[in-house]
Amino acid sequence: MFEKITDKLPEILKPWTPYLLLVLTIFIIFQKYGGSHIQPWFMATIYIPWTSIHHDSVKEFQRKHFEKIKNHKSADPELRKKGILRILEIGPGPGYNFEFYPSKSQLSVVEVNPFFEKQFFEKQADHPHIKMDRFIVGFAENMKDVPDNSVDIVVSSFVLCSVRSVEGALKEVHRVLVPGGKYYYFEHIRDYKYAWVRFLQHLYTYTFYDLLFGCNLNRVTNQIIEANKWRFSKIDQKLITTPMKKRYYPFYICVTPAVVGIAEK
Ligand SMILES: C[S@@+](CC[C@H](N)C(=O)[O-])C[C@H]1O[C@@H](n2cnc3c(N)ncnc32)[C@H](O)[C@@H]1O
Question: Which of 21, 53, 85, 182 is 20 to 30 A from residue 207's alpha carbon, by CA?
Answer without folding.
Answer: 53
